[in-house]
Write a structure and sequence with these properties.
Oligomer: heterodimer
CATH topology of the largest domain in chain B: D-Maltodextrin-Binding Protein, domain 2
Structural class of chain B: alpha/beta
Number of domains of chain B: 2
Mean pLDDT of chain A: 91
Number of strands of chain A: 0
Order of helices and strands of chain B: HEHEHEHEEHEHHEHEEEEEHH
Helix content of chain B: 25-40%
Radius of gyration of chain B: 20 Å
Mean pLDDT of chain B: 90
CATH superfamily of the largest domain in chain B: Periplasmic binding protein-like II
Radius of gyration of chain A: 20 Å
Strand content of chain B: 15-25%
Helix content of chain A: over 70%
CATH class of the largest domain in chain B: Alpha Beta
Strand order of the largest sheet of chain B: 2-1-3-12-4
CATH topology of chain A: MetI-like fold
Distance between the termini of chain A: 44 Å
Number of helices of chain B: 10
Number of strands of chain B: 12
CATH class of chain A: Mainly Alpha
Number of helices of chain A: 11
Low-confidence stretches of chain A: none
Strand content of chain A: under 5%
Low-confidence stretches of chain B: 17-23
Structural class of chain A: mainly alpha
Number of domains of chain A: 1
Chain lengths: 223, 252
Amino acid sequence: MLTDTDLQAIGLTLRLAGVTTLILLLIGTPVAWWLARSQSWWKGPVGAVVALPLVLPPSVLGFYLLLAMGPHGPVGQLTQSLGLGTLPFTFWGLVVASVFYSFPFMVQPLQNAFEAIGDRPLEVAATLRASPLDTFFSVVLPLARPGFLTAGILTFAHTVGEFGVVLMIGGNIPGVTRVASVQIYDHVEAMEYGDAHRLAAVMLIFSFAVLLALYAWRPNARK
Amino acid sequence: MKVPFSKFAALAALTLCSWQVLADEVQVAVAANFTAPMNQIAADFEKATGHKAVLAFGATGKFYAQIVNGAPFDVFLAADDTTPEKLEKEGQGVSGSRFTYAVGKLVLWSAKPGFVDAQGEVLRSGQFAKLSIANPKTAPYGAAAIETLNKLNLLAAVQPRFVQGENISQTLQFVSTGNAELGFVALSQVFKDGKVSGGSAWIVPDSFHEPIYQDALLLARGKGNPAAVALLAYLKSEPARGVIRAFGYGLR
């Protein structure tokens, strides 16, 4: 019932969301840890920057990214000098955009989970002569597992739902940047409402299933 | 700050008054490629008639979906002739009101001076990484670009370098920001005072693609609106046709 191009768009969307989630786990974890533990004056400004994509219109983010990553922008100059070409209209360009766009969805649940652990378990671990790194892996990670689950699912789902930024920097290339949300938009513009309905229904069911998993099955969600 | 009630009331009264004055207002859905000429025509129209034209710009296919679902537009200036025809048949437009207000011209354009030659040979050279076109499925200028490339026997060779704009404005934006070296856009977007206003261009001969007839339609909602009727009449007038020509469109 779904066409080949629809399936291609879905596959691409899942790949984009998966890669973005993995990268954000690596970047977001230390940032969230720092935000949860630091007493620095910088905590406020950094927290605000992390939350920016929540309130910024995707068109603002897309516009800046298009200019910055384009051949005349600073990021574009850098990637060109590294022999990588420019990022707009490529899969990795979308990954970079998605990392910015979904940043708060990874950091904020992690930060909450880290803060909920409190000082006590860390102090106990320290008296048992655990190194900070050891403490992080054998105390913090297990305690923060529900937080990681929430953050991962939210980041993945939010990236699947991305549209505005992709429209601004994607260039609608089949198999490279034409994700499911753009494919639906295309179907609607081409007045192929049957195709639009089928793909839209898939997205609706997927999103509901993800959120159901998150809300119904999340352990220790509320303390 | 607290606004005293009297000031608030005065403001409210003023707002109501301005509603009265602007009663003859026409809401127009305009194809993105016609943005620049329509801004000028709307200003002239307001001066000439006192009616106000409120313009919304976008992709024709999106406007179709919005109009069918009750969007508050009185007049539709489409980028093609098939969409207004379809709306007319479906009873969304006033039958007999449809006419071609402009004939689109396609241009291969680059922001870099000297990059595109006068015969479009740059397409054969392959000296570019990205070629920006409007989505051929939804935008007539995109479809015309595909026909042109087909005619040149270059479609298969350059297709892997396509980047697609959602509408013709975004197609131009990809080129003007340098993210694509060149692209097929509407001549009107890069044309001013009778010549291409910057960069380099090849104006594609009309014989390379089906003519891009852009039709206007009085929508069902605009039927009783004098401003809507006046705007369509104004579009056929000599001053408006002069503006349309000056932006590089043909006329039928």
